[in-house]
Design goal:
The chain is 34% helix and 14% strand. With 202 residues, the protein is of the alpha/beta class.
Length: 202
């Protein structure tokens, strides 16, 4: 059972609020209702900051249990391309931005066929083809999910604004830093020299 009552440091909350990490959409699926804190007067759903924080940490822990070559990050959404590429460079985890090459997980006859043990996607809707392929071969899926996402075939949901440049930049900064700490590549936060501007430049 996942405990999601960890107190969030005020500075962390400020970082989340500045980039709108908690701001969802006007559309809310039943799948995501447990992650929604409230609905604003303008109709936008607001995600629970505590649950976001806990699940970002847990996503990093899950990723750290695998070798980089056994994981793939996929991002069809253009706002995520830059931070995903930086994340890939830092962690050694292979990334596909833009169009996912069909069949690379399922068709052993393809020259670029790869075998993986974990899939990480930025948005279950545009990335649904790779999620479906992962389901066919029994590969677990971590997904960044907004309030409008369905989570069929997603094994671990990270609730967040998965559309904004700054939001995605902060997500991949935080997961990269935690991943590198858990892998023993860096010892403490201060050893991580990159900032949000490196993941989401203006």
């Amino acid at each position: 059972m996942v405990v999601e009552t960890k107190t969030v440091d005020e500075s962390v909350v400020d970082d989340y609020l500045k980039v709108g990490l908690h701001i969802g959409t006007k559309y809310r699926t039943k799948s995501m209702k447990d992650f929604i804190f409230k609905v604003r007067s303008d109709g936008l759903a607001v995600l629970d900051v505590q649950k976001i924080n806990v699940r970002l940490d847990l996503a990093a822990k899950i990723l750290s249990n695998y070798n980089p070559e056994d994981v793939v990050v996929v991002c069809r959404r253009e706002n995520g391309w830059y931070p995903v590429k930086i994340f890939s460079k830092l962690t050694g985890i292979r990334a596909y931005t833009g169009r996912y090459p069909p069949g690379i997980l399922t068709n052993t006859k393809l020259e670029d066929f790869i075998e993986i043990k974990l899939l990480f996607v930025v948005d279950p809707f545009p990335d649904r083809n790779v999620i479906n392929d992962a389901a066919k071969i029994g590969v677990p899926v971590i997904a960044l999910c907004d309030t409008n996402n369905e989570i069929s075939n997603v094994d671990f949901v990270v609730p967040c604004n998965n559309k904004g440049k700054k939001s995605l930049g902060l997500i991949f900064l935080k997961i990269a830093k935690e991943y590198l700490k858990l892998k023993g590549i860096i010892k403490k936060d201060e050893d991580f020299k990159l900032t949000l501007d490196d993941f989401a430049p203006e």
